[in-house]
Amino acid sequence: QQRSGEDDGCDGSASLVWAATPGMLFQEDKQTRLHPLSLSWVLGYNSSLAVHSLTDGEDLVLLYVSSHTVVIHDVLGNRQYHLQGHTNVISCLCVSEDRRWVATADRGPDALIIVWDSFSGIPVRTIFESHPEDGVSAIAISQDAKYLATISAGTVQRVCVWKWTSPTEKPMCSTELRPEFGYQDYVTFNPQNPHEFVSNSKTQVIFYLWGDAGLQYGAPLLSSQTFNSMVGHFSQSVFHFNTSQALTGTSAGKLVVWDVVSPRTPSKELRAKPHSMKATKLVPMQKDSLTVLKVFESCVVTGDVKGQVKFYDGQLQLLTCYSHSKVGPIRSISFSKIPPDPPGTSPACSTSCIASSQPFSIRNFILSTSDATVLRVATDRTNFEKVMEEAKKAVNAIACHPRQALVAVGSHCGLLKVWDYQQTKYLVSRIFTEAGIQCLSYDPEGYFLAAGFTDGSVYILDAISLQSSCKEFKFSRGPVTHISFSYDSEYLATADEKYSVTVYKSVLQNGSRCWEHLAGLHSHYKPIRSILFGVQLDSNEPRLLSLGEDRQLVEYDLNNSSKDHLVVLHRDRVEQIAVPLCLAWYPQLSTESFILTANNCYKMKLYNTTTKMCRKTLLGPTYGSPLEKIQILPTTNTTEPQKRYLAYITKDKVGLQILPVDGNPHKSSAFICHPDGVSDLASSYDGRYVFTAGGKDCTVMKWEVNL
C-alpha cells in the first residue's frame, strides 16, 4: 500500500521501518488477534545460540532464539515480542553493531535467511533458497551492516556473501569449501574491512577476501608440530582491533595469533590476499578451554568453560577478569550499547581478579551459558545477577492447574517449575537430581501434582510447595509416559514404556490423605498411546481405559481389582489396519455418549462408550502428519453449551477444530509450533490458552485462543 498523500513508490512496511525508533515494539497495543491461535509467550530458549543485549542504559532487553521464533524480551517490563517467519528451527543468528538489524537463518526444507528491523519488528528482507540443499550453519553481518556472510550446513559447505540491502536473489560471490576443512560453524567479519572475514571449524581456520575478482580464501595449516605444543580444538576467531593480526581461541586454553607473512614480492595486492595469513604464535592464556572470543573496543575478551570472562589489551596482557563460582560454560557475551560512567579504578572481580595498571571503563554485559542460564554483569559493582534460568534438556511434560492460572513444566534435566501464565512469572521450582521428568498431571481439585520420571518412579507432590506428599513409588520398569488422576481423585494411573498400566489408590492414614500402590498389568504388547479416566454412565464410579498401538482399547474393572491384581473388564480391537494414536471423551452433544479416537490414516472415529461399537468414521485434520494428542477445550460458555472445540497437536503443529466432528476440512486450522516435534499439549482451565512443549527444543509456548 502506498503511504497516504505520497506517491514515492515506497511501500507501507518501508515507511514503518523508516519511522521506527528504539523501544517502539512494546509501546504499541497488540492488535486484535486475527488467528484462532496466536503466540502469546515463550518459555525457554535455544542455549546453543548466542543471547544478545539490545539495551542502552538501565533497561534490560534481550534477543534470543526459541525453536523457530526470535524473542525480543523486555525483562524489567515483563513483555515479549515475537519475530515469526521461519518454518524450521533457527540454526544461527547475528546482530549488527548498532543492534538494529537482526539476521536469522535456519536449516531444513525451504530454509530462509531473514533480516529483521529490531526497532519495528518488521522483516525487511527475506532471502529464499540461499542454500537449498541443507540450509545455513553460520551467519555474520559486517560492521557497516550492508553485507551478510553465510556458510551452508551440507557435507560440502558453500560460503556466500550477500548485499542484503539490494533486491537481487543471488549472492555477490560464493565458493565451495573442501570437506577436509571440517564443519565450519562460526564466521565473523573484519570490523575494519567488510571485504574480509574469517570462519573456523574445530580443526581449520579459513580467511576470506572478496571483491570484483570473486571470493578467495586461504586455509593456513596448524598442527601440534608447528610450535611443538598442543593446540586443541578451535572455538571462535576474531580480527585484532589495530593490527593485521587475527586470533583464534582453543580448547587447550590458548590463543593462536595469525598474521600476514609477506611474500618476497613487495606487491601490496599479493600481501592482502588471504593466502598469506599464517600462524605466527601460540599464546597459552590459561588451563581451561576457551569457548568465546570477542574484540570489544580496545580489548580482547575471552569466556571459558569455568564461567570466567577475561579482558586483555592489544598485547594480550591481562587487564581484569570477572568470575563467579555458580556460572557454567560461557556460550556468548553481549555488551550494553552505552558505557557506564567511567569509574576511577579498575573493576574488582567477585572471586578472582587482577587489577590493571591504568583505569579503564567496561560496559555492563550479558552472559549466556551452555546450561541455559542468562546473567547480567554490572561491571562497576561486579555482581552477577541471574536474569533467566531455563531447562537445559528436553521439555516433555506440561500440565495446567484445574482452577488457577498455573502451568507446571517438567524437563529431562529434573527441573520442575510452576509458572503463573496470567502474570507471566515463575512461582516455585524444584530440581530432581535422580531422573528426568517425563509426564505431569494435576488432580481435579488442584491439591496434588503427580510426576512420572524417566527411571520409572512416580512422585506425588503438594501442588503449591512441590514437596513430596508421600514417599515416591517405583513400580514401573521403564520410563513413565502417561499419568492421570480419576475425577474423584481416588485413583492415579500411569503407563510406561514397557507397555504396562499401574494403578495407585488414595487412602486415609491418621486423618490425612496418602497414596498406596494397588496393582499393575502388562496389558498391551505395543506402546501405550493414552490412558483415560471417565465416569460410569449409571453411577458416579470412575472407569479407566488404555489405548495402545496394538489397536487394543482396554477397560479395567477398578471396583473388583485388589492388591496386586488389576482386573480387565473389556478388551476391544478398535482398528484393523490403521494404528490408533490418541483418545478423548467426546462432549455430550447428543443423547448418545462417545469416545473419540484419531489414527495414523488421518481418520477420527466415534465409539459408543458402552458397547465400544464404531458409530462414525470421519476425516480428521490433514496438516502433514496425523494427530498425536487431542484434548476437548474446556468451556466457560454457559449460554451456548453446544459450542465446543477440540485442541490437538500433530508432529510439529498445534491446532483447533470446531465440534461436532463432521469431516469438513474448513472446520480446523493449525500452526507450526515446534518444527523439531511437539511432545505435549495442555489447555488452561478456562479454555483461553493452549500450551505446547517442544521436547528437545527445550521450550514451552503459550497460545492465546480466539474462537
Walk me through what this model shows.
There is one protein chain. The chain has 707 residues and is mainly beta. 2% of the residues lie in helices and 48% in strands. It is built from 2 helices and 55 strands. A 4-stranded antiparallel sheet has the order 1-55-54-53, with no helix packed on it. Strand 7 (101-106) and strand 8 form a beta hairpin. The model is unreliable at 1-10 and 344-358 (pLDDT under 50).
In short:
By secondary structure, this protein is an all-beta fold.
Total number of helices:
2
Q: How is the biggest beta sheet arranged?
A: 4 strands, antiparallel
Structural class: mainly beta
Give the tally of β-strands.
Answer: 55
Looking at how many chains there are and whether they match, the oligomeric state comes to single chain
The end-to-end distance, rounded to whole angstroms, is 30 Å
Low-confidence stretches: 1-10, 344-358
Alpha-carbon Rg, integer: 29 Å
InterPro entries: WD40/YVTN_repeat-like_dom_sf, WD40_repeat_dom_sf, WD40_rpt, WD_repeat_EMAP
Protein name: Cilia- and flagella-associated protein 251
Keywords: Cell projection, Repeat, WD repeat
Subcellular location: Cell projection, Cilium
